[in-house]
Amino acid sequence: MFEEVLSRLGIDATNPNPGVFAGAWSDSTSGETLTSVNPATGEPIAQVFTASRPDYERAIESAREAFAAWRILPPPQRGEIVRQIGNALREAKDDLGLLVTLEAGKIRSEGLGEVQEMIDMCDFAVGLSRQLYGLTIASERPSHRMFEQWQPLGPVGCITAFNFPVAVWAWNAAIALVCGNPVVWKPSELTPLTAIAVQRIVNRVLEPQGWAGLLNLVVGGREVGQWLAADERLPLISATGSTAMGKSVATTVAGRLGRSLLELGGNNGLIVTESANLDLALRAVLFAAVGTAGQRCTTLRRLIVHRSVVDRFVPRLVQAYRSIQPGSPWDDGVLLGPLVRESAVEQFESAVAAAKSQGGEVLCGGRRIDRPGYYVEPTIIRMPKQSEIVKRETFAPILYVLAYDSLDNAIALHNLVPQGLSSAIFTDRFQDAERFLSALGSDCGIANVNIGTSGAEIGGAFGGEKETGGGREAGSDAWKAYMRRQTCTLNYGDSLPLAQGVRFEV
Ligand code: UN1
Fold it and tell me: Candidates 462, 468, 472, 473: which one to mutate for ligand 1, based on the most atoms within 8 Å of Cβ?
C-alpha cells in the first residue's frame, strides 16, 4: 500500500530521491543523503539527496529569475495560478494525507486535515489576490493625494518543522505567491518526502506555464537553514520550529537587517473555571493535549483548574486518557500515534523524570510503550506548582495539572511562562471570559473561550508573543509581512506647499 502511494506521488523507495528543485532542474550534486523514517515502525521509507552549496545557489537564482517576471503580473493573475495549485492539491489530497501519516506519524484524519489546510490556504490566497488593499490618507496639503500601496518583497526563504510538514509551507507559499514573491523552501530533515511530493504536484502546475522557478525546494540540515538566514537575496525568512532555532535564525537575519517571521515554541495553557461546562472542557482537553501526540506548537501542556472542580474534573480526564490506546496511525479508531523519533521519546522520559523530581504526581501514563516505533503513553502529571519543567515546552503528550483559587491567580500562572502562543478558558460566566480576553488576561497571540488551544482555522492570523517569536502567518492581514509598504504622495496642483507649514523659497 505504501509503495503505491509513494509511486503515485513520485517518490522512489529504492533509490535516493532528488532533494533540490530549482526551477525546472531537480537533482543534487552533494552526493550526501538523508533517510526518511516511518515513526510508526522506526523503519526507513526512502532516501533523499541533500543540497550542496551550488545546488542552493541554483535554487536562489531560479527564485530571483522568477521574481523578475512574477512581480509585474497583476495579483489576480497570480491568484489564478494559486487556484490551480489548490486544485492540484485537492486531487492529491488522499495520497498526500497518507504520506503525512507515513512520514510524520499523524493519524489518518490529521494527515488529511493537514492537506485540507493547504487547500484552504490556496482558496484564501486566491481571494486575497484581489484584496491587497492600501489606505488612502488625507493629505494636509492642497491638491495632494496621499496613499499607500503594497509591492512584492522578493524571494522568501521558508523553513518548516516536521509536525506540520506541508501545511505551514502552504501558509507561507500561497500568500507569498499572490504577494508577488517566489519561495525557497527548506523542509524539516525529518519530513523531506512530503516536501518532495508537494513540489512534484506544484511543478506539474507551474512548469508548463513557465513558472517553475516560483517554488523551489532545498532539502538539508541546519547548515542549509543558516545559508537561508544569512542570504541577503532573501528579504524575508519565515521560520517555524524550536525557540532555539528561531533565536539563531532571527539573530542572523537581523544582522543583515532582513525581515524574519517566526512561529516558535508554545507552552499553551487552558483555564477551567468553577462555572465551566466540564463535558465540553473534557473533549477539548483531550484533543488539544493528546492530538498529534502532543507535537503541535498549539498543544495543550498546562491545565489550570479551579480548586473547587479539580477533584471532579481531573479523575474524569484520567479515565478518558486510560481509554486512549496508542497505536499505528494507520488504524481506524486510533487517536494517538507515535512521536517522531527516538530523541523525542527520550525528551518525554526526561521531562517525566524532571516533573517527578519537582514534586509531580503522575496520574496516568508516564512510560514509553514497548513496541517498534516511538510510542509513549498519554500522560497527566499533577504539579504542586508551576516548576521549571512546566515552563518548558516538551514536544510530547504530557499534560501538567495545576489548581488555582482566584481567576487573577490563574491568569498570572497562565502568563508566567516564556512562551506566548495559544491559550484558552472554559467558563460559562461572561465576566471571566471577558477578563481572560482583556488587557489583564491572556498574553498569547491566540486566546479562545470554550475551545481548546489547538486546531486554529486559517482565516485568523496565527502566531504568538514572547519566545513564540511574534510572527503572524496565514489569515487576516498576515500578508503584509510578505510585502513592501510604499507611502505615495502625489501633487496635482501648481504650487509646492511643504508639510508642517515649512517655507523654503528663494
Ligand atoms: C503548529 O503546531 O506549528 O492551530 C501549527 C493548530 C494548527 C496549526 C499548528 N492549525 O493547531
Answer: 462
Q: Tell me, using a 6 A CB cutoff, whether residue 240 lines ligand 1.
A: yes
Q: What is the 424 CA–ligand 1 centroid distance (Å)?
A: 15
Q: Which sequence spans correspond to the domains of the chain?
A: 2-264+469-486, 268-457
Q: Which residue has the cell 500562572?
A: 413
Closest CA to 298 of 289, 286, 307: 289
Q: Which three cell numbers stand for residue 371?
A: 513496541
Pick the CATH number of 2-264+469-486 from 3.40.50.300, 1.20.120.1770, 3.40.605.10, 3.40.50.280: 3.40.605.10
Closest C-alpha to ligand 1, atom 1:
297
Which CA distances in Å does 390 have to 49, 185, 285, 445, 472? 39, 33, 17, 20, 25
Q: Which residues are catalytic?
A: 263, 297
Walk along the chain (506 residues) in steps of 10 and give the mean pLDDT of each run.
92 97 93 97 98 98 98 98 98 98 98 98 98 98 98 98 98 98 98 98 98 98 98 98 97 98 98 98 98 98 98 98 96 96 98 98 98 98 98 98 98 98 98 98 98 97 98 98 98 97 95
* pTM exceeds 0.90: yes
Give, for ligand 1, the residue of 159, 298, 472 to mutate: max count of ligand atoms closer than 8 Å to Cβ.
298
